[in-house]
Amino acid sequence: MLHTLMKSPFETNINLIISMLKKSDDFLGLQDGVLIGLKNNIFLKQLIQSSVRLYLIKDDVYARGIQKNISSKFNLISYVYFVSLTLKHQKQMNW
């Protein structure tokens, strides 16, 4: 399953999202959801321990000027790669 976070993690029930993640899932932050990738945020450790593949939309990270503060556990991707993730996962959950 592809989980996409579009809102700030501080406006979302991240603990619920993390509890639903499976190792075969991919997790993508876009729009304000890219804030989940900030180093040392309170949700990062739990998210990393979930063992899912972590992605952020590069354009959204740069638009917010936070590229130097993003955890190395996240892969920055383009919207084109986002499309390939949607093709890979027939099931998706938008948060």
Produce a short descriptive summary.
With about 100 residues, the chain is an alpha/beta fold.
Description:
Part of a sulfur-relay system required for 2-thiolation of 5-methylaminomethyl-2-thiouridine (mnm(5)s(2)U) at tRNA wobble positions. Belongs to the DsrH/TusB family. Its main location: cytoplasm. With 95 residues, this protein is of the alpha/beta class. The protein has a single domain (2-94), classed as Hypothetical Protein Ychn, Chain: A. Helices cover 31% and strands 20% of the residues. It has a five-stranded parallel sheet. The two termini are 13 Å apart.
Summarize the SSE layout with pairings:
Layout (H helix, E strand, L loop, with lengths): L1 E4 L8 H7 L5 E4 L14 H6 L3 E5 H6 L11 E3 L1 H10 L3 E3 L1
Parallel strand pairs: 1-2, 1-5, 2-3, 3-4
Function: Part of a sulfur-relay system required for 2-thiolation of 5-methylaminomethyl-2-thiouridine (mnm(5)s(2)U) at tRNA wobble positions.
Subunit structure: Heterohexamer, formed by a dimer of trimers. The hexameric TusBCD complex contains 2 copies each of TusB, TusC and TusD. The TusBCD complex interacts with TusE.
Main location: cytoplasm
